[in-house]
Amino acid sequence: MVRQVLNFGLKGGAVALDNKVVNRSTLLGDAVITIKARILAVDDNIQNVELLEGLLSSRGYEVIKAYNGLEALQKLEENDIDVVLLDVLMPKMDGYETCRRIKSRSESRLLPVIMLTALDSIEDKIKGIEAGADDFITKPFQKPELLARVKSFERLKGLLDELENAQNVLYSLASALDYNDPYTHGHSKRVSEFSVRLATHIGMDTAGVEAIRNAGVLHDIGKIATDKGILHKPGALNAIEYKHVKDHPVVGEQICKPLKFARPLLPIIRHHHEKYDGTGYPDGLVGEDIPLGARIMAIVDVYDALTSVRPYRSDIPPEVALEVMKAEAIKGYWDKDLLNAFCEVLRKDGYTI
Fold first, then answer.
1. Is the bond preceding 140 in cis, omega lying within 30 degrees of 0?
2. Which of 120, 145, 177, 294 has the most CB atoms around its CB within 10 Å?
3. Is the separation of the CB atoms in 155 and 2 below 8 Å?
4. Do residues 95 and 115 make contact, with C-beta atoms less than 8 angstroms apart?
């Protein structure tokens, strides 16, 4: 079995030979680095841990050992783990609480956890499911069953890592685009942070706020295809140049569209240059037909642009920028209620508006 990695410029995989070796390989240039899948075995019984270590090591896995829940959490901090084998009945912290803590951490919430337990009642399994366990194996376990479950979850973890790698590459591209441009240095980060504050201020739910946060980072990624000479032009753009610049929201949507994590972000990325009166782009949406996240980002994006240096003008003080935007809201450009809410957010920062 060979696993392909969804990286830009990277290829990788997992190879299993006769069900014995499960390694991940990463090809970078001419160098191939092989990484053993790493299993965290957690049990307060030393003999049980040694049994798991002997079985898994013989199949090519690297085994990290822990003898209670607290130690397991520490090992997770220190190591990149692919699968956790977790006993239930342990001193200091039982398996249920350990599993809950593993799944509550953003960096390990997708980490597969298999509970090893002599408890086999429906109530015990429900308790494990509620704690976030991905699977259960009853003690005493059958070796072929345990190996098959570990192999299956190691493969799943590898696929999840590949998707995360693709996501990270996308964020890195967006950051590089931002920081390599002296006129937009830090722009996407500021837009993300202010948009989150505005979304939180108006009571948007957690999922909506998270979509705003990520879309803020990626909203201008389509400018990777925009001519830098046009972006840095010190004078007014002609019609052809302006049309070229206006392509970037659609290009950004196309770049992000293949990635499942980005689906909630696509309407924000595509429509963050729409105007409330329908004179924006790319689709000329009007009023509340513009997604709420895009309306939020449109206001914050313009505010940050006005208060930052551009090739064709100097920066404008925040108070003046907001007066300009209020005049534009009267013309119909911006959602007046959201602009007023944004002013409230800025007042908390001490601005006199």
1. yes
2. 294
3. no
4. yes
- Write out pLDDT tens, residues 154-186: 888 887 777 676 677 777 777 777 766 666 778
Contact 118, 139 (CB under 8 A): yes
- The single residue of 75, 151, 157, 223 carrying the catalytic annotation is 223
331 pLDDT band, cuts 50/70/90, is very high
Q: Is the pLDDT of residue 11 over 60?
A: no
What's the order of all strands across the beta sheet hosting 31-36?
11-17, 21-28, 31-36
Give 291-323 pLDDT, tens digit per residue.
999 999 999 999 999 998 777 778 899 999 999
- pLDDT band of residue 19 (cuts 50, 70, 90) is very low
Pair 128, 136: CB distance under 8 Å: yes
Reply yes or no: is the peptide bond before residue 234 cis, omega within 30 of 0: no
DSSP string over 80-107: --SEEEEESS-SSS-HHHHHHHHHHSTT
Q: Which fold has domain 165-347?
A: Hypothetical protein af1432 (1.10.3210)
Catalytic residue at 92? no
CATH class as words, domain 39-147:
alpha beta
Cβ(200)–Cβ(192) below 8 Å: no
